[in-house]
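Table S4 entry, O-phosphoseryl-tRNA(Sec) selenium transferase.
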Amino acid sequence: MDSRNFALAQGLVDRSYVSQARQSRSSREGLVRQLLANRRLPEHGWDDVTIKLFLNEIASMDSNNFPGNVGLGEREGRVYSSLVRERNFHLHHGIGRSGDIGAVQPKAAGSSLVVKIAGSLALDASKAAGFTNAKHAAVIPVATGMALTLTMCALREQRSSCRKVIFLRIDQKSCVKSVLTAGFELVLVDNVKDTAADEVSTDLERLEALLNEDDYVCVLSTTSCFAPRIPDRIPAISALCAKYDVPHIVNNAYGLQSRRCMNLIQAAATTGRVDIVVQSTDKNFLVPVGGSVLSASSPKLIDAVLKAYPGRASASPSLDVMITLLSMGKQGWSRLLEVRERTVIHLRETLGSVAEEFGERVLDTEENEVSVAMSLSRAESKGINVTFIGSKLFSRFVSGARVVPRLNSKSKVCGITFNGGFGAHCADYPVSYITFACTLGVTKDEIDIGMGRLRESLSECYKALDGN
Ligand SMILES: *Cc1c(COP(=O)(O)O)cnc(C)c1O
């Protein structure tokens, strides 16, 4: 209600009550004003009433909700089910125009506003998480693998003489497919194992040798990954990419929640070449699967990706990110990051005590701040089929644990040969192991329960041996 309507309300309800209601409304307006003026995360998260008020206001800006609007085009935002209308907060027009997914739509000022705000909030969240040099960000409605594909497609024009992408080995099928679906040849650079620790990471010598001998569409590196792989050597890679003038795409799938990943990107973007950073919305912002955040210190490649997208797209991922970040606020977001950092220490400790009990050890992969691995060497030496441990956990309702048996075999994925088996991230890793991840929102309780079930599963495997 505007001030005239509040004044009229005073003819119906006690003046002092209306005046209070008006103050409360005006403090909500103040929050919206700050958001639109500063385009930053609000310091404190908004309550649901404020968010809904804002969403209703936004929806009323779209033509499908104009009173008396007559739609005579082929796409007029008509939605049959009231459930679907509600689920979309009456924002039906999606985002983008045929030539640019970032473009403002004449029929949908509200939806267009959502896209811009979601991008600004994601940018601010990235800065708060450690990528302080980030200056541009966009939320796009495809998940990480597809966002990588779009990014590589967007590079095609700038790199029209190149056919090959340098792929720093990450054993995740969507990453392999992202290169192939973009229509490029994948040049695999296997990882190397650290001689002192258990860590597996970038073979910088091999990378430089390749960069020296040919030209490439880009180098694709990865930060967030399963231990014992650690983040790629992002600053060194970005220095090489600057030296050889090759674009550098960083797959930071769930690294936005990790200070270490973000610090690596920040350092790399300051001293070397990072063209774009791609991250998942669901893995980092606690929203349903469906979107990615692109961020960078220069707008060049992000803009090219937005322009490469054919047609319009769903507004849902932007809407989910906007609502969630408004609801968290800067303090809520920072608190989640801090809690996760403490929780991963708890995971290391509790996994450590299970390891001790069963004669195993937690692998020394300190540089991976999200995922932790425990050896299964003793179990294996006693003749336990280590993959059973994973299935036992799954049947006990523990999801997300991964067992990687020590294999000296090769495996072929999408026609490409991966030494050491796909999933191992390198050839000849000396031990079998099981990994667990500590990602945003996981609680100490969940970890304790999970580790309890791991203990039960291992005991059961050993008992089955005794029975034989
Ligand atoms: C999750 C993940 C992907 C794939 O992401 P989607 O969002 O499922 O496309 C790619 N790379 C890494 C490192 C991941 O963790």
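Residues 316-357 form the longest helix (42 residues).
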